[in-house]
Amino acid sequence: MQELFVISDCRVVTVEPVGAAGLQVAAQVKHSHACCPSCQQASQSVHSRYHRHPADLPSLGNAVHINLLVRRFYCRSPICPRWTFVEPVPELLAPWARRTRRLAGAQGQVGVTCGGEAGARLLRRLGMPTSADTVLRLVRALSLPECAPPSVLGVDDWALRKGWSYGTILVDLKARRVVDLLPDRTAQTLTDWLIDRDTAELKH
C-alpha cells in the first residue's frame, strides 16, 4: 500500500473506494513534533486535530482524495507571537490548498498545452477533474522556465484594444517565442528595455 500511495512525510492508514471511480486515502503526518513557522522552535504539545481533504493525482484511472489528519500545536516559546500553529506538510500541500502540489503542477501543465476549456475536458477524462477557470489560474501560478537571452530580437506593435491602445511585442526569432510585452510602443520604452539587455541583435 505504501508503495502504491507514496505521500511525502506521511503514513498511509487506509485506502477505500468512494463512488464509482474514486479513492479516499486516509493518512497522517509521520513526525511526532513540528516547528513553529515564526520562531522555528520544535513542539510536541498538541492543541487539537482536524482533517484536510485535498485532491491528489489519480490512481488507475480513479480520482484520489486524501483524508489527511493534521495537528495544531502549542508554541512553547515565551517570546513567540504565535500561541498555536498547524503542522506544515510543505512538500505535499501549500497552506489552505485544496489540491496537492503535484496535482496542481500536472493540471497546470495540461493547461499550458491545451488551454482552459480543452484542458478541463481532458483532465476530467484523466481522473483529475477541475474547472476551466482553475486550469487557467494554475497556469498563471507556474514558474516560468529559464530561457537563454535572445540573440536575434524581433520588434512589432500589438493591439490591446484595436484602434485605441497599442503596445510593443518582442520576439526571440531563433527560438520563436515571445520574450516580453511592453505597455506602449514608444521608442523610449523600447530603449529602456534594451539598455538592461544588451545581448540581442535587433531586427525590424
From TrEMBL:
Q: Provide the Transposase IS204/IS1001/IS1096/IS1165 DDE domain boundaries.
A: 153-197
- What PANTHER family is this protein classified in? TRANSPOSASE FOR INSERTION SEQUENCE ELEMENT IS1557 (PTHR33498)
Outline the extent of the Transposase IS204/IS1001/IS1096/IS1165 zinc-finger domain.
Answer: 34-77
Origin: domain of life: Bacteria
InterPro entries named in the record = Transpos_ISL3 (IPR047951), Transposase_DDE (IPR002560), Transposase_Znf (IPR029261)
Which keywords label this protein? Plasmid
Q: Which organism is it from?
A: Azospirillum brasilense
Question: Would you tell me the protein name for this molecule?
Answer: Transposase
